[in-house]
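Supplementary Note 3. Input sequence used for the single-chain structure prediction.
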Amino acid sequence: MAKPNSKWYKLDSAGTLYSALQKEEYSAIYRFSALMEKDVDPAALQRAIDRCMPRFPTFAVRIRKGAFWYYLEHNSAPGPFLKEDVSDPCQPVRFKEDNGWLVRFYYYRNRISIEVFHALSDGGGAIIFFRTLLAEYLRQTGVDIPAGNGVLDLNEPPREEELEDAYARYAGRHAFGLRRLPRAYQNTGTPEPFYTFHVTMGFVPLSRLREQAKKHNASITEYLSAVLIHVILEKQKRERPYRERPVALAEIGEFAECGLCGTAAVISPVGEIDNKVYGADETVTFPAGYTEIGPVMKKLRETLTGIQSGAVEDKHNWVYTVA
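The predicted structure, written as discrete structure tokens, is reproduced below.
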């Protein structure tokens, strides 16, 4: 349980899931990296880390296990400390190691990287943290970077909405009102060797990327997300007719399997969804999600990771060799 007088935070549904899934053979860690014009000054970067952590209290935490669920508690241990980069990034988080810190900081030559446990934040929140860190690092090296445009003011206290699980407020009961539609598209694949790890890296000119995004009146992040979705939809279209549609929470009782997809998760099984949190009267369970990944998600994961590793033929020209 939380220590007396300690600040603690309830995990949202995704955070609870990631915490329960975390184990040695599964890593719910994702990474952001930035290339600087000059080699990194480690002392300046550590000062920037020390300055940023208090502004982001939900990153300055350790994870604890309560009577039923995990929760986050303020971490007063020394750290987190900057380290030289490693050859095996995105290792699984080990809750009792590294003084319990759930965010990691690395540098290599002119590259700065952070790794974040997915229960702390999604990519949107982490990129704001990373931008703010980079801005403070540049200030520590003598470059004046103002707050704004995704860089938070370190002299301001955290806003209340930064600490809120806003799903219930913005979705709430409306999520139950979506009409039922036909079954969604399913994918196939082949097995990936145990604990196989792949790093895919690509480089594009920022000016051209910004130009393409501007043509669609989108940010770079929005544009890249749309490109990813487009590629997946084109693959589905080649294999069979499809329809994109939202899925109502009221439908989930009809599902044989349920999975979580994301940057770090790839495809991970879900064992239970508690609809009571959002006003329904039932808890939906998926037996395959408790003990093993189901056959549909297994094929989907095997195909994706197989194409990444080269074990499955890349019929769609997704994989490129970067010299």
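The CA atoms of residues 155 and 279 lie 39 Å apart. The helical segments are 13-21, 42-52, 123-140, 167-170, 206-215, 220-239, 287-291, 295-309.
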